[in-house]
Amino acid sequence: MKRKLEVAIAGGGIGGLTAALALRARGLDAFVFEQAPAFREIGAGISLGANAVLLLKRVGLENRLKSNGSANTGLTLLTWQGVPVATSPRPANPLPPGEVNSYTVHRAEFVTLLMEALPKEALHFGHRCVKAEERSDRVRLTFANGSVAEADVFVGADGIHSVSQREIGLRTRPTSEGCMAYRGLIPAERLPWAKDLNSLKMWVGSGRSFICYPVSRGRLVNIVAFVPTDLDCAESWSAPGDIEKLAAEYAGWDTPVLQMIGALDETLRWGIYDRAPLPYWSTARMTLLGDAAHPMVPHFGQGAGQAIEDGFALAALLEDADIEQVPARLKAYQQLRRDRTSRVQAVSREAGRFYRSEHRSSAEREKHLATWTSAGRWIFDYDVEKAATELLSELGAPAPSGTQRVSRR
Ligand SMILES: Cc1cc2nc3c(=O)[nH]c(=O)nc-3n(C[C@H](O)[C@H](O)[C@H](O)COP(=O)(O)OP(=O)(O)OC[C@H]3O[C@@H](n4cnc5c(N)ncnc54)[C@H](O)[C@@H]3O)c2cc1C
After folding, report:
1. I need a surface site. Which of 55, 136, 154, 277 has the fewest CB within 10 A?
2. Which domains does the chain have, with CATH numbers?
């Protein structure tokens, strides 16, 4: 009988944890090595689009998403003074009543539900990976705590400051978008209108944008406020922010924006970065995933969504593979994922330009709006497991057994 492939994942963020879940759901032995000594996630919200929710439902997380998340019905875009500009495109086929295909969630709650779905023995905290070496047909990992581990496949899911990138021979630097984000959570009872908030709302103007949406089943309102900055990336990665400075950036904006800033107890600021698409992601037995492979600016809310797609693609492509087939499957993974994530990276930058384009000509704004609208369709209406199965068949490989599960959509 064929031996199960062992997959070691460095990084227990959203990307690493969902990859482990997807790999285990297809019968592979996946283990996560996370540098933090124990679970920690920041208090902030995240939106999960239809392309990600579809996959999470397939590994049995639908009820957990329902009980933790807030159903999301789309995005409404307003000017800084509150005049409606656009709404996100509606799906061509409306959902059956009661069905939800997109959620907004509290990051810590979401990461907790991913961890709880994995067996305890799959998670190793306090393991900062410092080295990954390919040796004959295995990969050997070395951790800062002195321990070592071996696996058939290594996946670097260690975020935008990835060490794994270096281990596969790449050296790149994040590029600043010239803006930073203030983030914060507000108890919904402090905002008179928050009980009716069931979608993302974004105000745009003068080089700034301000988005809010409910998380924790509507108990909290998450805000993200993008403002221009020339701060250097190393110092501005994630640090406490100053509410007074934030308020000064949005002086005179629409009343709900001012109410939200006024209701904050604290805020964090994040630098906004991406990287140019990498020339390659995979070597024979090592590959990258999530922000380690394709960090993107967050204006389409797709960083985590694309990381989730990566993990499910990898699982579909590695299922049923022999140890000898691993190099070809990792190449196929790179082929499937690099083009799509590069397009999503580009369109996320474009979306940022659109949000900040209030001062530009109306023709230019219309052009940005058209790109934004069509990107909404090809990004959200995508099934990565189906795409992986099609690629395997193009490459002459048998379809993975898990396609039974895929076709039950
Ligand atoms: C302001 C803002 C808003 C955003 N909003 C959204 C949104 O609404 N929707 C969305 O989809 N995305 C959003 N994103 C993007 C999203 O947060 C990221 O794309 C996503 O978290 C990437 O997940 P990851 O697992 O690849 O990386 P990370 O979440 O960075 O996880 C990496 C993990 O690896 C660990 N690690 C690092 N180095 C090592 C090592 N050497 N060894 C072991 N472990 C290591 C880290 O401790 C961490 O736990 C947003 C980002 C920002 C900045």
Report:
1. 136
2. 6-73+101-174+276-357+381-407 (3.50.50.60)
